[in-house]
Amino acid sequence: MSELRWHPVLREWVITATHRQERTFLPPRDYCPLCPTRPGGVPTEIPRPDYQIVVFENRFPALQRQPPEPAVAGSPLTPVAPAQGICEVVVYTPDHDSRLALRSVDEIERLIAVWTDRYQELGGYDFVKYVFIFENKGEVIGVTLHHPHGQIYAFPYIPPIVQRELASAADHLASTGRCLFCDILAAERGDGRRLVAENADFVAFVPFYARYPYEVHLFAAAHLGALPDLAPRQRRSLAALLKTVLVTYDNLWGFSLPYMMVLHQRPTDGEPHPEYHFHIEFYPPHRAPDKLKYLAGCESGAGTFINDTLPEETAARLRAARPPAVD
């Protein structure tokens, strides 16, 4: 069962998806559903002996192309709606023991091309208003499969965080005539203390307002709204800086750092959204090698993050862990 239930106090949709309780949970390596199907081996989700990148629809989707009718009747106070949408899995590599940080710049560039293709195709459906590309990495994040992969949710509405970003950006554009994200980037570059890495087309930094201790944002240097706006050189630059950030995270404390990686780009609701600016955000849950940043009462109940570190100091630690070059 999948359905949308309206939260009248926060004014946002909640997805109820009871069938996801049955999804595969941390299977043994030999039974990984994302590995290639080897001759004589256990059949997997990918019926080929090898591949580069694979995209397929999630077997346990929160949103469905043809969703069932809601289980309960709504009311004017608490409407319900079918959970129409599309959920896809993006498998980065056939190598079960790899991770995105270990892939080459060429392979990451290929992944960006896949993301771009999926953004365009999924965003072309009239019921899709937002294409959300993300990766959850690490058991502490809550992943249920170890094999390197990401996900894509094609939403029938614009998610709340993106709505807030759009509103802030639209207000800033109306009052100043400038892009909010471009101004943030100019301020970070002007200050310099929170920069982690940059190249000709993208900049990675710990934002002044970081909520997670080692949060990193990766902004396009030019005012671009979404992946399809990237020229070939910019796509290559994005791949190179993504690789740098990922390797930096793994170098920080000498282990593969868990994180949430989310791509924020222009909605696909048919509006132009000139105020929006493509960027990627990373939320690692660690505040120290042996300590996690939990979203406890203040964060979850009041919506106010408490950061136990100074962004200027965490950025310096990340710069010290940055690799000299990537390939």
Protein architecture, described:
The protein has one domain: HIT family, subunit A (2-Layer Sandwich). It has six helices and 14 strands. The strands form three sheets. Strands 3-5-7-6-11-12-10-9-8 form a nine-stranded antiparallel sheet, sandwiched between helices. It has a three-stranded antiparallel sheet with strand order 2-1-4, with no helix packed on it. The radius of gyration is 20 Å and the shape is globular. The N and C termini lie far apart (45 Å).
Please tell me the overall pLDDT. 96
As a percent range, the share of strand residues is: 15-25%
Overall geometry comes to globular
Strand order of the largest sheet: 3-5-7-6-11-12-10-9-8
Provide the CATH superfamily: HIT-like
CATH class placement: Alpha Beta
How many domains in all? 1
By DSSP (H or I, 4+ residues per run), the number of helices equals: 6
H/E series:
EEEEEHEEHHEEEHEEEEHH
Q: Give the strand tally.
A: 14
- Helical residues, percent: 25-40%
The third-level CATH topology is: HIT family, subunit A
> What is the makeup of the main sheet?
9 strands, antiparallel
Q: Which architecture would the CATH scheme give at its second level?
A: 2-Layer Sandwich
Cα distance spanning the termini: 45 Å
Q: From the alpha carbons, calculate the radius of gyration and give it in angstroms.
A: 20 Å
Structural class: alpha+beta
